């Protein structure tokens, strides 16, 4: 039976990425060697890194004056690298979920954190709006998509300070205005490639302004100067990420992705709004994530949760169990998720409803 992969991360990747990576695991760029066993300094691998960086710039229309990096340590290491490098005495954070909260915890090690707003009061089921940001902060940190709670900031907040964003779970899913950001980071494993690589886009002149000593490996400038080759990069994940970037370009880039992502999200949310058995956990349509669709059983049908999970599983759905902090279900419908899989999930919801 066909499996429909709704895992939140690591998660679905394009067939193209998997096939090209599988080939290169055996014979990389005609070398007769695996991509896992060639030097990162070989001309073949340097070409991979260069093309990956160039495609990130092309696809996101990154302006002059920014550097693209492929680091390790996941988005979680960025929670501390960001304040280490960019926070003088004070930074602002918007608290929209578990990942934001973790970023805030690390930032507090480096200075004063102004939490400009939080949706914790309602288990993070909305995006706070209309908050003030002090003028004297070095940046406002946002989590553009809240993977666990199913909310997304589809437009940058209008503020007078530079933004920093954790875009781990929605990067490349729609166009963004990079010029508004001092830094963007994303673990690869949601919309780009396997875990092990972390994409960072950083404005060069935002660096070098803090007084503290920064350890070499945690200093963005180290990695900019070395073209992400200061130490051994995650060669296989970077290779696979490059294949996804090529696939994105071939398929019309982030502009085309956005159209399909809107279509997929509409199909699923429409069904959730219609079907009496289910309720989406995010009520405000403006705040609903196009990447992670979270829902629970309607109160009258709460006892059917396990039945639906078993039913959906029997129809080939994988990874739809919700995160433990929200419960219910979560369907992650990243770029690589075909419309057919979303339709298959909707069909399973309708079939289940008919039998109740
Ligand atoms: C998955 C995720 C993280 C954690 O990423 P790691 O690479 O595991 O450190 C952080 N932020 C967001 C928004 C995520 O979705």
TrEMBL record:
The modification N6-(pyridoxal phosphate)lysine is found at residue 190. Binds 1 pyridoxal phosphate per subunit. It is found in: Cytoplasm. It catalyses: 4-(phosphooxy)-L-threonine + 2-oxoglutarate = (R)-3-hydroxy-2-oxo-4-phosphooxybutanoate + L-glutamate; O-phospho-L-serine + 2-oxoglutarate = 3-phosphooxypyruvate + L-glutamate. Pathway: Amino-acid biosynthesis; L-serine biosynthesis; L-serine from 3-phospho-D-glycerate: step 2/3; Cofactor biosynthesis; pyridoxine 5'-phosphate biosynthesis; pyridoxine 5'-phosphate from D-erythrose 4-phosphate: step 3/5. Pyridoxal 5'-phosphate binds at residues 75-76, 99, 147, 166, 189, 231-232. L-glutamate binds at residue 41. Its cofactor is pyridoxal 5'-phosphate. GO terms for cellular component: cytoplasm. Its EC number is 2.6.1.52. InterPro entries: Aminotrans_V_dom, Pser_aminoTfrase, PyrdxlP-dep_Trfase, PyrdxlP-dep_Trfase_major, PyrdxlP-dep_Trfase_small. Residues 5-345 form the Aminotransferase class V domain. One of its GO terms (biological process) is pyridoxine biosynthetic process. GO terms for molecular function: O-phospho-L-serine:2-oxoglutarate aminotransferase activity; pyridoxal phosphate binding. Belongs to the class-V pyridoxal-phosphate-dependent aminotransferase family. SerC subfamily. Catalyzes the reversible conversion of 3-phosphohydroxypyruvate to phosphoserine and of 3-hydroxy-2-oxo-4-phosphonooxybutanoate to phosphohydroxythreonine. Homodimer. This is Phosphoserine aminotransferase. The lineage of its organism: Bacteria, Pseudomonadati, Bacteroidota, Bacteroidia, Marinilabiliales.
């Amino acid at each position: 039976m066909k499996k429909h992969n709704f895992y939140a991360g690591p998660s679905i990747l394009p067939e193209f990425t998997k096939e090209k990576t599988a080939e290169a695991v055996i014979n990389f760029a005609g070398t007769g060697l695996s991509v896992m066993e060639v030097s990162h300094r070989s001309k073949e691998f340097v070409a991979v890194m260069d093309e990956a960086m160039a495609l990130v710039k092309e696809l996101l229309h990154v302006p002059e004056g920014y550097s693209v990096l492929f680091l390790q340590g996941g988005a979680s290491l960025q929670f501390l690298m960001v304040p280490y490098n960019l926070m003088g005495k004070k930074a602002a954070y918007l608290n929209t979920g578990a990942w934001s909260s973790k970023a805030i915890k690390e930032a507090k090690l480096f200075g004063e954190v102004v939490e400009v707003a939080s949706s914790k009061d309602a288990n993070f089921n909305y995006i706070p709006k209309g908050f003030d940001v002090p003028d004297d902060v070095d940046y406002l940190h946002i989590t553009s998509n809240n993977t666990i709670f199913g909310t997304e900031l589809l437009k940058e907040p209008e503020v007078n300070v530079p933004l920093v964003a954790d875009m781990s779970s929605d990067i490349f899913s729609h166009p963004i205005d990079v010029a508004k950001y001092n830094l963007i980071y994303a673990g690869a494993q949601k919309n780009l490639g396997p875990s092990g690589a972390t994409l960072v886009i950083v404005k060069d002149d935002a660096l070098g302004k803090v007084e503290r000593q920064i350890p070499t490996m945690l200093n963005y400038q180290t990695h900019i100067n070395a073209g992400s080759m200061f130490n051994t990069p995650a060669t296989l994940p970077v290779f696979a990420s490059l294949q996804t970037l090529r696939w994105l370009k071939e398929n019309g880039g982030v502009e085309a992705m956005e159209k399909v992502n809107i279509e997929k999200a509409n199909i699923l949310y429409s069904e959730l709004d219609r079907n009496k058995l289910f309720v989406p956990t995010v009520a405000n349509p403006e705040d609903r994530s196009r990447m992670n669709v979270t829902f629970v059983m309607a109160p009258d049908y709460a006892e059917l949760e396990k039945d639906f999970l078993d039913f959906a599983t029997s129809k080939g759905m994988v990874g739809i169990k919700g995160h433990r902090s929200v419960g219910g279900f979560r369907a992650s419908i990243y770029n690589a998720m075909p419309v057919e899989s979303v339709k298959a999930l909707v069909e399973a919801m309708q079939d289940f409803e008919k039998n109740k």
